[in-house]
Design brief:
With 177 residues, this protein is mainly alpha-helical. It has eight helices and four strands; from the N terminus they run αβαββααααααβ. A two-stranded antiparallel ribbon has the order 1-4. A two-stranded antiparallel sheet has the order 2-3. The longest helix is centred in the middle third of the chain and has 16 residues. The radius of gyration is 21 Å and the shape is elongated.
């Protein structure tokens, strides 16, 4: 029943939907947050394939952060209401990485009660008690990937989980019209 529930939740939120774009302000705020959390980051301005300018100076990045902090109310007033999208053509199927990430988010809490230490044999001919490997095999069974490595180990699903678990994405489905 849990597998059917998770399959249905993932399908509902990732198939025949429209992805709601982030507002300009949200993108700007995410950029400022990234700069704060990564003080060694470089800021590059690109135009097409042409490399324009690179901002590497810590002082310049702090000045940019201060400018953002001092003008956040004005920026919000100007940029927060720029989100617009129509409800026509809810036909986008999100990439498999979103389906896999959502499946992991659903399954991990369900499997939390099996977290206690397992003192059984680590012989590969016996049953594996690795939760991420179990989820990886279920994801393969669901058809979210055709990569057979998902059946053998949990490296692929762990990589997707690490990359996408904190990404925010919003969709609107047909049931919300």
């Amino acid at each position: 029943m849990a597998m059917l529930f998770v399959y249905d939740v993932v399908r509902e939120q990732t198939e025949n939907v429209q992805q709601v774009p982030a507002s300009v302000f949200e993108e700007f705020r995410a950029f400022a947050k990234y700069l704060q959390e990564n003080p060694d980051a470089k800021v590059r301005a690109w135009r097409g394939r042409e490399h324009g300018a690179t901002l590497e100076s810590d002082l310049a990045k702090r000045m940019l952060g201060k400018l953002l902090a001092d003008n956040v109310a004005e920026l919000y007033a100007k940029l927060s209401n720029t989100r617009s999208f129509g409800l026509d053509g809810l036909s986008v199927n999100l990439k498999s990485c979103y389906k896999i990430t959502l499946a992991v988010k659903c399954f991990l809490p369900l499997l939390e009660k099996f977290k206690e230490e397992d003192n059984r044999s680590t012989n590969p001919n016996k049953v594996s008690y690795n939760r991420m490997l179990l989820i990886s095999r279920i994801v393969y069974f669901f058809g979210y990937t055709d990569n057979p490595k998902f059946l053998d180990n949990d490296e692929s699903i762990s990589g997707i989980w690490t990359s996408y678990k904190d990404k925010e994405w919003t969709t609107v489905g047909a049931n919300f019209r």
